Each structure stands twice: as C-alpha cells, then as structure tokens.
Amino acid sequence: MALQIKIFTFNDFAENTYMLYDETNQCIIVDPGCKNAREQNILASFITENELTPIMLINTHCHIDHVLGNAWVSRQYQLGLYAHELEKPTLHMQPLVAQMYGMPYDESPQISGLLHEGEMINVGTTYWKILFVPGHAPGHICLYHEASNTLIAGDTLFEGSIGRTDLPGGHHETLIARIQSELFTLPDETVVYPGHGGPTTIGKEKSTNPFF
After folding, report:
1. DSSP-derived pairing of the beta strands 53-58 and 26-30
2. 4-208 has which CATH code?
3. 3-state helix, strand, coil in the chain (%, to 5)
4. What is the rounded average pLDDT of the residues 104-109?
5. Which parts of 23-117 are beta strand (E)?
6. Domain residue spans in the chain?
7. Are 29 and 21 in contact (CB under 8 A)?
8. 201: pLDDT confidence band, cut at 50, 70 and 90?
9. Once rounded to an integer, what is the mean pLDDT over residues 59-64?
10. 8 A C-beta contact, residue 44 and residue 76
C-alpha cells in the first residue's frame, strides 16, 4: 500500500481534515477541525477500523477552523502539536476568536514541535517536505510528497482561488509571491488538497486561477 489520504470535512466552516498514512499503519493528522463528539467519533472510528497509529499532529496554520480538534486529538493519542513558530501568536488568539464566533472551544495545546522550511518529516516510509507559504497566516506551511506529487495546501491555494489575506497577519502580496515561488514551481500534475473544497492540480491553477 502506497501513500493513502483520507479527507474528513468538519465544522461550520466545511474545513478539510487530512489523515496521511501508508502500509506501516502510522498516520499523521493534519488540521483536525472536529468540533464535537460526533465529529471526533468519525475520526476515531476510522483510526480504529483501519488499525492506524497516529504519530503526529500538525497544523498547516492555526486559524480557528483548523484547530478545533487539536485538544481532543492531543489527549486521545498523546500527541504534541507541530506547527511553524510564527503561528504561536495566531494560536494564542483563538480563544478570543471562538468567543467572537460564539462557538465552544476546547483550547488547543501550545505548539511543542516546530516545523521548519525545507525540513523532511516522515510517516512510516513516506516522506513529506515542509514548504513555507505565508500570506494567509504568518507561519503557514504546506506538506509536499514528491514521490506521488501530492500537496497538502492548507488555506494557500484553492481551485480557482487563494486564501483570504484580510485576517490578522495576512498579506496579499506575500501569499501571491510565495504561491508562485513555492507551489507553482512544483510539477503541473501535482494534486493539491486544500483546506476547503475539493482537490485541484498545480497545472490547472497556473493556467486558470484568476489571481495569477
């Protein structure tokens, strides 16, 4: 079994939570957006039924819709949180953001493991490269699996769109520049799995995305 990607769409923002695993049955949980017991059970049942062992909890960035399940995942599977250092202030703001939206928030653990640009991390025998793509959030990272041309893009690039840049720490020109230098230099056949909506490809976005 080669790389497997399971997508869960959770919470009121229709956020995509990703589970990455291979034949070793080790898995990485990326951006757990599960907001309540029902959504937590969906995630847990998949892990149990497929006999997976979660070894890493990663946030591409720390906006509220991507961190709602952090606390539960961390407790359930005894995992620390990995993210870019520049996301620490973003994560610190999320209790206030949750209050503004009027939503319950089980406060996320703090970032205990730092992800650095160019670093390689592995799940089983599958290696992912950390790409640094700020602009939507100051410390936004993407995960790239070169062997299968797969990109976990978070809220950087969507089918026909890009991440919003009007939130604290956002910067439109930076996001455009980093997508062009970090993502559009990947092979055209690279499949892009975004934080919201369905997958697309780098080639399609280079040729049809109205922001470029």
Report:
1. parallel
2. 3.60.15.10
3. 30, 30, 40
4. 96
5. 26-30, 53-58, 81-83, 111-114
6. 4-208
7. no
8. very high
9. 98
10. yes
Chain-centroid distance of CA 159 in Å reads: 16
Residues 142, 131: Cα–Cα separation, whole Å: 5
Sign of the C-alpha dihedral, residues 22, 70, 62, 81? negative
HSE toward the beta carbon, residue 84, CA cutoff 13 A: 23
Q: Quick one: tokens of 75?
A: 């407790």
Distance of alpha carbon 91 from alpha carbon 209, whole angstroms: 30
Distance CA 21, CA 178 (A): 27
- In whole angstroms, give the CA distance from residue 18 to residue 29: 6
Beta-carbon contacts of 163 under 8 Å, excluding residues fewer than 6 positions away, are 135, 136, 137, 140, 154, 155, 156, 157, 170, 175, 195
Question: Is residue 28 within 8 Å of 55, Cβ to Cβ?
Answer: yes
Give the tens place of pLDDT for each residue, 147-183.
Answer: 999 999 999 999 999 999 999 999 999 999 999 999 9
Mean pLDDT of the chain, nearest integer: 97
Element (H, E) at 9: strand 4-10
**What whole-number distance in Å separates Cα of residue 129 and Cα of residue 115?**
10
Predicted local confidence at residue 116, as pLDDT? 97
Mean pLDDT of 39-54: 98
Long-range contacts of 39-46 (CB under 8 A, 24+ apart): 39/8, 39/10, 39/11, 39/69, 40/69, 40/72, 40/76, 42/8, 42/10, 43/8, 43/17, 43/19, 43/69, 43/73, 44/76, 46/6, 46/8, 46/19
What pLDDT does 1 receive? Answer: 60
Tokens found for residue 184: 């559009």
